[in-house]
Amino acid sequence: MSSPTVSIEGPTSTTSEGLLAAAKSGGCASSSYGSSPTSPGEEDPAIWERIKDHPCFSEEAHHYFARMHVAVAPACNVQCNYCNRKYDCANESRPGVVSEKLTPDQALRKVIAVANKVPQLSVLGIAGPGDACYDWEKTKATFDRVIREIPDIKLCVSTNGLVLPDHVAELAEMNVDHVTITINMVDPEVGAKIYPWIFYENRRYFGIEAARILHARQMLGLEMLSARGILTKINSVMIPGVNDQHLFEVNKMVRERGAFLHNVMPLISDPAHGTHYGLIGQRGPTAKEMMALQDRLEGGAKLMRH
After folding, report:
1. Over the Cα atoms of the chain, what is R_g?
2. Of 32, 12, 254, 205, whose CA–CA distance to 114 is shortest?
3. pLDDT digit string (tens) for 8-44?
4. Buried b / exposed e across 93-110, counting CB within 10 Å, b at 16+?
5. 101 in any annotated domain
6. CA distance 270 to 276
7. Domain limits at 206?
8. How far is 217 from 185, CA to CA, in rounded Å?
9. CA 120 → CA 19, 168, 289, distances in Å?
10. 237 within 8 A of 63, measured Cβ to Cβ
11. Of 51, 173, 210, 233, which cross-links 198 as Cys (Cβ 3.0–4.6 Å)?
12. Are 218 and 181 in contact (CB under 8 A)?
């Protein structure tokens, strides 16, 4: 990617150190959990051609390109038991860390400032702090503004998937070719233990009914993305005693529907974060439990290792 030299009017309050940190530590969610990118011999050649310059997925690109994300989408339509919206979405960033909430215009200025300081910037993602697809007007407005100024930057979106099917066509039109969906269950009875409620089509749903709707919409969104040729990574949070034994079924089902990568992350549950799981003492997995699950999932959808 060529170094953008777009200027902006007015000062930016972001320091050079902050800009560098934003480019190196932000971006596609999985990197926050230490996932290892892939290399040419590990990937299908057609997919490798598309991800080789993406620092979240390519080991080589990880050393030569930078990525960042902008927090322009605060609204969310799904309540997760591991989430407190005072913080960034626990699926997409480091729990307990708060991003600066930006308007689309502020996000554009920040991206341009980073691009001028960090010419290696190649990827811009929106992963919250709510849901990028639910807060669609802000997501789309941000991407539209950035693409006008930096047309060769890659765009990524992370979402819970509930309203993803409504926006797949627009994502394709904007040349968004990498999407991350957080899928923690494919059985509504398991989902009811993770999601107290969802808000869908102007109505709030609870329990198993909520999980059933969410599951159906996630599968539809994944199938639609695959049909469009949009690469889709699945994030799952491993919650001991809730979905740890169930993630094998998740892996199998998302692979059948075209996901190219599955990233299983550990639940990070701290009472200080004020989440339901944190307050009731739900523990996260041990390193040994994480490794055992990843070993069990080998042979299904390709895994990002931690």
Report:
1. 18
2. 12
3. 333 344 454 554 444 444 434 433 333 445 555 555 6
4. bebeeebeebebebbbbb
5. yes
6. 10
7. 31-304
8. 12
9. 12, 28, 37
10. no
11. 210
12. yes
Q: Based on the structure, what is the number of domains in the chain?
A: 1
Give dist(CA 166, CA 186) in Å, integer.
20
Token pair listed for 128 = 């919250």
Q: What is the Cα–Cα distance from 126 to 26, expressed in whole angstroms?
A: 10
Lowest mean pLDDT among 118-122, 171-175, 178-182, 196-200: 118-122
Closest Cα to residue 222, out of 180, 265, 264?
Answer: 180
- Residue 306: closest CA among 257, 254, 238: 238
List, in sequence order, the alpha helices (H) in 194-246. 207-227
- Distinct helix (H) and strand (E) counts, the chain: 11, 10
What does the alpha-carbon distance between residue 89 and residue 95 come to, in Å, rounded to a whole number? 7
Residue 198 resides in a domain: yes
Biggest CA pair distance of the chain: 54
What's the start-to-end Cα distance of the chain, in Å? 29
CB 103 within 8 A of CB 141: no
| Domain-embedded: residue 22 | no
- pTM for the model: 0.83
* Coil vs helix vs strand at 205: strand
The CATH number of the domain where 166 resides is what?
A: 3.20.20.70
The residue among 200, 174, 163, 190 whose CA lies nearest residue 253 is: 190
Tell me the C-alpha distance between 141 and 136, whole Å.
8
Q: Is residue 21 part of a domain?
A: no
Q: Which amino acid is at 256?
A: E
pLDDT tens for 232-251 read 999 999 999 999 999 999 99
Which string of DSSP letters, residue by residue, matches 83-111?
Answer: --TTS--TTTS-TT--PPB--HHHHHHHH
Percent helix, percent strand, percent coil in the chain, to nearest 5: 40, 15, 45
DSSP-derived letter for residue 53 is T
